[in-house]
Amino acid sequence: MTRLENTRTPGRRGGAALVLAFVAVVAMLAGACTTVLTRSPVPASEAETAAPYGIVSKGGNRVRDWGDELSAGTRDDLIANWSKLQRAAHKDAIAAGEPIREISLALSGGGPDGAFGAGVLNGWSARGDRPEFTIVTGISTGAIIAVFAFLGPDYDDELTEVYTTYETSQLMQRAIFAGLTGGTALMDTRGYRGLIERYIDDTVVQRLAEEYERGRALLIGTTNLDAARPVFWNASAIAASGHPMAKRLIHDIVQASSAIPAVFPPVLIPVVTADGKTYDEMHVDGGATQQVMFFSPELPMRLVDEAVGARFDRSIYVIMNNKLRKPYDPVRPRVVSIAGSALSSLLGGAGSGDVYKIYAIAERDGIELNVLAVPTDFDREPQEAFDRDYMKALYDVGYEIGLAGDGWSPTPPEFEPWP
Fold first, then answer.
1. Which has the higher per-residue pLDDT, 181 or 199?
2. Fewer CB atoms near the end CB (10 Å): N or C, the chain?
3. Which of 57, 104, 125, 140 is catalytic?
4. 285 carries an active-site annotation
5. What is the distance of C-alpha 244 from the center of its chain?
6. pTM for this predicted structure
7. What would the mean pLDDT of 97-101 be, rounded to a whole number?
8. Is 299 helix (H, G, I), strand (E, B) or coil?
9. Listed residue (136, 122, 90, 157) closest to 236, CA to CA
10. Closest-CA residue to 237 (of 213, 258, 254, 255)
11. Which of 285, 305, 354, 365 is catalytic?
12. Cα(361)–Cα(12) distance, rounded to whole angstroms?
C-alpha cells in the first residue's frame, strides 16, 4: 500500500500533496457525480447584511465582517463599538491620562504544526511573564489555539491535551467513495467536530462573553467560499450576544476555519436576511484566503485612539505554525509530488506576505511587532495527518522557545531594516 493510499504524509510536502491530489481527482470525476449537497445560498444582494443564525452583537452590530475590505459605514461601526468597550474597560486610566496597554496575538494556520504554537504559549506561561492579550486572532489550527490563548493560562492543560494526545483516527475517517460520488469531502471529520464541542462548552462560551465585556476580542478567520473572500468573526461578541445559537455558531466557525476544501467537509452556516428569510453560506479553511490576520489595513488605529480619547501603547505577537523558509528537499518527478510541492510553496509565500502586511500595519500605527515561526532546523517529519509523536516533539520545541523567551523577531523574515 502506498503512502497516499495509507493517508500518510510523505515528508513536509505530504499534507499539501494530499490536498491537491484529492482536489484534482474530484475535479476529474465531478461530471460523474449524480447527487449534490442541497443548499439555499444567500443572494449576492444580501451577502453584506445577512446575520448568521440571526445573531447580532449586544449593540446591534454585525458579529463578523469581510477580512479584505471595509465599507465606510462598517469601519465607523467598528470604531464606535470598539471605542465604547475600551472607554468602559479603561475608564480609570483614561481619567488619569495614562496610556492604555494593548497586547495582541495572531496565530497562523498549520494543521498539526499548531502543536508549535501550543508549546510556545505554555512555555511562556511557565516563564511567568505571558501577558493577557487584548485581541487574539486565529486561522485554521490557529483558531482552536486562539480560544485557549484568549482565555489565558487557566486553559494551558486543555491546549496541551489537544495537541499532544490525539491522533488521526480520533479526529477523522476516510470517506473517499462518498466524496467522489456526490459528497462534499474525502474525509469524515465528525471526530474533530466532537473535539470542538467537548472543549468549547457552556463554561468557555460564558468566559468568552465575560472577556468581551472587559473590552477584549477573539477573532476567528474563515473563507466564505461563495464570495471567495476572507471573513473575520468576533467569537467573543457572538458569545456575549446571549443568543441561544451562539455556542453552535462558535463551533461552526472554529470547524470551518480549518476545513481544508475538498478534503474536509465545508460548514454551511444559516443566515437570516432583513426580511426574515433563511439562507446559507458555505465556509471553509481561513487559510484559503489568508494564513494569519490582524485588523484590516483600512482601519488606522489613530482613529480608535481619537474615538476613545486616550493614547495606546500597542504590541503584537505573531506565531507562525509553520516554517517561513522551507528546507531544501528534492521533489520526486511525479504529478502529485510536483503539484504538492508547488502548493506548499504557494501557501508558504502567502504566509510570508501576510506577515509583511501585519508589519506594514504595525509600522503605520506605531505597534511593536514580534514574529516567531517553526525553526528551520526542526527536521522531523509526520507519518500521518495528525501524528501524535511528531506533534509532541514540535510542542516540546515550542515550549522551550516560549520558556526561553528570546526567539522573537521585530521584523518579517529576511527583512533588513534601513539603519
1. 199
2. C
3. 140
4. yes
5. 24
6. 0.86
7. 93
8. coil
9. 136
10. 213
11. 285
12. 31
